[in-house]
Amino acid sequence: MHPLINNPSNDNCFQPIFIVGNPRSGTTLLAVLIDRHSDISIPPETHYYDQFIHEFRMKLNNLSKGQMVRYALENERIKDLNLDYHEVLEIFTKYERSKANLLRSILECYAEKRNKKIFGEKTPMHLRFVNEIMSDFPAAKIICIIRDGRDSILSTLNAPWGMAEVPRRLEKLCVKWRENAKKSLKYLNKYPNNFTLLKYEDLLLNPENELKKLCVFIGVKYEQRLLDQNIQSDVVPEWETDWKGNSYKGIDASRIEAWRKTSDNNKIWIMNSMMGNTLKKHGYRSTHLEGCPVHKKIILMIKTIAYIQHIRPISRACIRLLRALKLTA
After folding, report:
1. Domain range spanning residue 54?
2. Count of other CB atoms within 10 angstroms of residue 34
3. Does residue 3 fall inside a structural domain?
4. What was the pLDDT predicted at 9?
């Protein structure tokens, strides 16, 4: 079973849970379901690695434990946990001074306030920091949820912060999903005992079976309450309910392949062109360019090349060509 969180001498087998994935892939839904477990606590997103540590990494080296806690609790996102400075500091004093133990103290404090003994964290973008997380917490359990890239991207564009009007936004989101999907397979091979991959569609089609497998992975007993919508969860702060509130409404299989409902064939062609091979690797279907004119396929091929990072000079030349031909912004 899962090691107790309040044993400072148990660091070598300490197993925090991290939920990661591409944005709008079901990370919030999964966090809500797992947070309903009587032993597990998942707070609102902390963005600890991608924002807080990224901004304060050098500064933290010269701060006392008290100053580190104060900086953290004043952070825009960590504020959502509504923690008391003295309570976090009291826990932090049990551990050596490090950025890993600062996060541990924050999450432990949050869990204690909810009478939970196992804690985790959910920030989708932490997928880019899996190596650092594993360095900080060698026994961590990381759950990566993956969703059909077309659904993930269209959901992002429809979000209040989706910036759908920004030129080449769709193409950039395709590149990001493709990179994240490849990372998930890389980490699955690199950390087979600590990293697991869950398909969003499998969770919606067979939630009990998938959650039972996750509980085995985490090291806890499955509880039926994970699927009980009457169990309260604080995973979503009030200011995010407009675009995350549906996560409290339970399992909705109609969200699978929602991209088929769009009437914009151009978007589908772009997504299939830029993500098709990676979509296939993850078992997603209908990645062809059905009905796409030949001249459009040529343009899409050039666009795809233009976003390959490993051949930057050719990529830049392709983008200049597209702009010259007024085929992209």
Report:
1. 8-255
2. 25
3. no
4. 38
